């Protein structure tokens, strides 16, 4: 079954709302409308930029999608600093990353919390991009496949098959994020294949063939082609390279 390629730019904690507008303008200018039939492109800016991007994409009827980098498991209430799915949906967010390794590490996010956030996103019609991946010591011990499939199972716990079909998975080995050390296409494919196999065993072939599995970790225009050529890699979650308009649009064009 053909799955549409998705390239999602994770801006992390970079760019204020004016810089965000400038970058989105450049991306929109460089990627003609017909391009979006082949590849879906999304940007995931900091919360403070989302309203500006919404105004711009609505006003100019851009096909570019956008989303957030985190979501509260709650809808509203006394949760200082958090932002809910209710609020993100109102801002027109299509996607939200959940369980990024930087949130797992710096905010002590557990699989249990990640699972609640996946459910919160789905509840509000936002597609969660469930991030998972192994640290270097886990890979060196040869336990990366088991580690990642466990994170997958825990992250999706309690979901019905039709809900799982709406989730995007991002395999992001921690040792590849922001290091310039991209996984080989074969190493990335090994894990993405295992994740899809796990989905098939638990939720059936239809779901497994529908879910998009992305690779993330130091992806650049030079590496995207070989990655998306793999059977089980349906696009990329891109950090650093998504902040440079020329590099990001080149990368998107090469993913088509
Ligand atoms: C990320 O933060 O999800 C990521 C993949 O970052 P980078 O591309 O910079 O490694």
TrEMBL record:
Binding locations of substrate: 10-12, 178, 218, 239-240
Entry's Gene Ontology cellular component terms: cytosol
HAMAP family per the UniProt record, alphabetical: TIM_B (MF_00147_B)
Pfam family for this entry, one: TIM
GO biological process, one term: glycerol catabolic process
InterPro entries, per the entry: Aldolase_TIM, TIM_sf, TrioseP_Isoase_bac/euk, Triosephosphate_isomerase, Triosephosphate_isomerase_AS
Pathway: Carbohydrate degradation; glycolysis; D-glyceraldehyde 3-phosphate from glycerone phosphate: step 1/1; Carbohydrate biosynthesis; gluconeogenesis
Protein role: Involved in the gluconeogenesis. Catalyzes stereospecifically the conversion of dihydroxyacetone phosphate (DHAP) to D-glyceraldehyde-3-phosphate (G3P).
Organism: Actinokineospora alba
Family in the record: Belongs to the triosephosphate isomerase family.
Top-level class of the enzyme under EC nomenclature: isomerase
The name this protein goes by in its record: Triosephosphate isomerase
Record-annotated active site: 100 (electrophile), 172 (proton acceptor)
The EC number(s) this enzyme carries: 5.3.1.1
